[in-house]
Amino acid sequence: MTDHQAHRTLVAREVHEGWTLSVAGGSAPQGVRGSAPQSASLVGIPATVPGSVHTDLLAAGLIPDPYLDDNEALLGWVGRSDWEYRTTLTWTVEEAAAHERHDLVFDGLDTVAEVRLNGQVLGSTVNMHRTYRFDVSNSLHVGDNDLLVRFASPVRYADRQSLALGYRPQVNKHPFNAIRKMACSFGWDWGLDTATSGIWRPVRLESWTAARLSAVRVEASVADGAVDDDPGRVRVHVEIERTVAQSTALHVAVSVAGVERVVEVAPGSTSATIDLEVTSVDLWWPRGYGDQPLHDVDVLLSQDLDLLGSARRRVGFRTVRLEMEPDEHGTSFRFVVNGQPVFVRGANWIPDDAFPHRVTRERYAARIAQAQTANINLLRVWGGGIYEADDFYDLCDERGILTWQDFLFACAAYAEEEPLRGEVEAEVRDNVVRLAHHASLVVWNGSNENIWGYQDWGWEKRLDGRTWGLGYYTELLPRILAELDPARDYTPSSPWSGSLDVYPNDPAHGSMHSWELWNRDDYPHYRDVVPRFLAEFGWQGPPTWSTLTRAISDDPLTPESPGMLVHQKAMQGNDKLIDGLVAHLPLPDDMEDWHWAMSLNQASAVRVAVEHLRSWSPVCMGSVVWQLNDCWPVTSWAAVDGDGHAKPLLYALKHAYADRLVTIQPRAGESGAPLVVAVVNDSSEAWSGDLVVRRLRFDGVELQGVKVPVALAARSTTTVPVPTDVAVPARSGDEVLVATLGVERATWFFVEPRDSALETPTLAVEPVRTATGARVRVTTDVLVQDLALLADKVHPDAVVDDMLVTLLPGESVTFEVTCREELDLAALADSRVLRHTNQLVTEVAR
């Protein structure tokens, strides 16, 4: 590139330094906004951009951590106050002369903001989910420039808008549906109420000449039925902004995989479409189905051989379709990638932090790695959160994690009139253009539970004829997608039966959500229904012990001590925890026993559901558990807690979502046998061998057994009836059914643990220090159920490789524990760390 070319190329300068924060009005506590010195403490404090008011106040030592104890209640005034961010932007003669146009670009403003430069109002914003660009060419002057972003209280704005737009039902104490802001910023049944403000995504000054790439959309495709080395096609749509109606032509060059094409953009024209064919490509696959080859698509904009700007998108070549077709069972709901039906082993994703600007690429990577540990192949980005940062989707592309992206409508009715409608359309256009090129993205979804809510939650009567969002889901969103992302499938809501004429949560048709089990029934009833695709279900459990005791300082700490109740947001959450436990295990009075019992019960409940769903494939083709992650330390449905620590549930998912699964199910067949063994082969290789089913006493003595040869093709499931003489116990409380195929094993206990004859084991524990932590071998003398090593109780950073292992008498298991710090080996053998179901039966029952 010549000096002249460099002179004309777009230059982006971050505007992240020198920001300060001041309170500008509202309801700050008496003394905070009052006389000095307190008032001075909230004027001109250092601010971080990207950032938020809460995290700036926290960094300045002016508020306590909202994640701890009941500090949330102390900080409600932050969301009811107005705030100002200010910085000085120094501008030189050389910068002013270098380019014709200068834009101030905000990738995210949260949420109700006015932007001023040198006292001049550049614009106002009311949407957290949009990008904003302001032409400051005539507002900047040489020297220091005063840049001010004033944020109005999001709480008071939402309240005012709820009146201006008219009442619409929703599930929160704040009308989150009246403002285009992360819904769970106002709290949820697992989230705290922060209602923060701030410059939450990057801000920069872009200087350019003649023209710039204002939008770049890239579509990568292969023909149906394509295989590796077949041709791939790339279509690039570019939108161009010019400084003036240019009399000279522009050129757009696109290159990918060694193929390049240049097209001319006629004078005055502001768009172009460029098609390329790559003669040989390898297909992109979900994890477990193949590799994830990715290709950079480079787009260059030039004029008279001068480079004006560039963009890069990374793509993978694959076909994806969502099949919703009538069949003998109802209406299917299955994803087909490159012609291969994929059983979805999924989890729902929420914002990983109540202050999402804190989620770095490294944190995304850690969380997605935990999803991989759990054998998850799809993450559903839930509609009450955000369109995640590019890093999230980039990492899913790299690791073969399919993504399902909700549009941001959740559990509420939404006005379809202006000004909300215009904001919705603008945010959708922004984010579809930003995300549509990702190979991992397989479906857009219009809303979370809103069509179901309209029918089942009493909305129709309360709305009294007002709009509620259906026009978004059935008209506006499909229209925008037809324009901007026509090849990708779309559903109007989740759950979705395929038609407005069919009940939206019908298990026989399309996708389903299942919450009656957690709310009212018990988890064995998951087996009562065979949905075509279960997109939400789950069970609560506390965070890990180290997270719980870091976040809550109650003394004594009890299940119902004040801090515990603050960190339990679900309606009657503790009652439901108890109701869901006592049918299976005694209710402990000791706090650590209670913690272990509830953690174990969460894992058991979800494991029952997932194994049931997988045993019915291909009738059922998806399990998306609620939820993978948390945004703060809380008792919730998550498998990974707010400190990023894996709960026992993550290990239950690891086993239940394994490529090869053996599971025993209560399913009377034509043979009359009360139990079957379902063998699920979701691997790419055939699986065959002798399925050995034995009924044992707890002391290991075999009472009855059978050996059945089985052979499964790749991606298939079979069921084997268990003969009655094997399946029916003589003494139900003292016997277990064990089914083994190769190295995979399943167990079936004929009664709940609390009614069984589980004994106190004498465990031989052999911990050995390793270069990365410790290796712990455990051998038992009696049957031990769901053995777990809660390594975080020894050190918060300690991670164990497995958990929830059932051992027969005389068997051993070796746990690998990794930790950056040296571990106390003796502590790893402590009975409060090395936990199992037997303890809850033999010790709690006493």
From TrEMBL:
Keywords: Glycosidase, Hydrolase. It catalyses: Hydrolysis of terminal, non-reducing beta-D-mannose residues in beta-D-mannosides. Pfam families: Glyco_hydro_2, Glyco_hydro_2_N2. Gene3D superfamilies: Galactose-binding domain-like, Glycosidases, Immunoglobulins. Residues 227-318 form the Glycoside hydrolase family 2 immunoglobulin-like beta-sandwich domain. Residues 44-201 form the Beta-mannosidase-like galactose-binding domain. Its EC number is 3.2.1.25. It is an enzyme of class 3 (hydrolase). GO terms for molecular function: hydrolase activity. Belongs to the glycosyl hydrolase 2 family. PANTHER family: BETA-MANNOSIDASE (PTHR43730:SF1). This is beta-mannosidase. It comes from Oerskovia merdavium.
